[in-house]
Design brief:
Elements (H helix, E strand, L loop, with lengths): L2 H23 L21 H21 L17 H20 L10 E3 L4 E3 H26 L8
Antiparallel strand pairs: 1-2
Helix pairs in contact: 1-2, 1-3, 1-4, 2-3, 2-4
């Protein structure tokens, strides 16, 4: 049975689709535009930074699941390296390929019960995927909020 695998796969596919659509809506000069920082609020980031954080979380998770290397993609997702919508879209495609490779290893919902080191303590794959989709969607939602600060367009639908 693969009910939960299908649900997770669909959620991650939708996350990817929305990120790709959002990046297409943002002009390059606005990708890393940040709202004004106020000392009394949380740190502000740009659409590009939030989309990269969202994708980076997915990449880290599926890199960990497939190779047991939980490298933080921070260094290769810096705005200086991925400065345009096209470059971010290429990175999103790489992350999607990594994710699909990870899902190909999951043959049944029983695989989601397996525990693996993630990275500091043992967790089930189910827990890891649940935490990852929640965190990645959180970052994506923040990207949508920043997008709405400078655009009259609607962000991609859930």
């Amino acid at each position: 049975m693969t009910i939960y695998i299908k649900i997770f796969n669909a959620r991650f596919a939708d996350l990817h689709r929305r990120s790709v659509e959002l990046i297409r809506l943002v002009p390059d000069e606005k990708l890393f535009w940040k709202p004004r920082d106020l000392g009394r609020t949380m740190a502000m980031f740009s659409v590009g930074e939030f989309v990269l954080r969202s994708a980076g979380k997915v990449e880290q998770t599926f890199g960990g699941i497939t190779t047991r290397l939980w490298d933080d993609p921070f260094e290769w997702t810096l705005p200086e390296k991925l400065a345009t919508g096209d470059l971010i879209s290429e990175y999103l495609a790489e992350v999607e390929a990594t994710r699909l490779n990870g899902f190909n290893l999951l043959k049944s919902d029983e695989d989601l019960r397996r525990e693996i080191p993630a990275p500091a303590k043992m967790k089930t794959i189910f827990e890891i995927l649940l935490e990852t989709i929640a965190r990645a969607e959180h970052f994506q939602g923040r990207a949508f909020a920043v997008f709405q600060m400078f655009s009259d367009d609607k962000p991609p639908k859930f």
